[in-house]
Protein: Mitochondrial fission process protein 1
Amino acid sequence: MVPASYGVAITYVCADTVDKTRKALGGAKYKQAQTTCALIEGLDALLWQLTASVGLPGFTIHQLVAVVVACIDASDLDPNPALSALPTALGLLTIPFIVKPLDELAEQIMDATLRKLWSPYLESCLVDYD
Structure:
């Protein structure tokens, strides 16, 4: 199930990236340098989504499950199906609580790194509000 969930998440990331890039390319959003601006916008969307929707949640849930498994293994509890399901159940239950903090972390990571790198190229991306 885990590989399938990553497949779904990566499919969503790609679809969102294509959608944002096509909208930026096809619309009249920018006054000049439309292709460069749209490609940067698409790359930004791709990297942010990979970080916020795949990388950070995958790492966080994996670590939580590993800690729970280690705690169960270190305990003297007798193995049973309910106990075996506990790590997965706790991993799934954390999802609603980690989304917003990890989205904010992804935003901060992007602002502190890649967005600083391509900000000089975005100066020509004058948004057309007319």
Observations:
- The chain has one domain: 2-122.
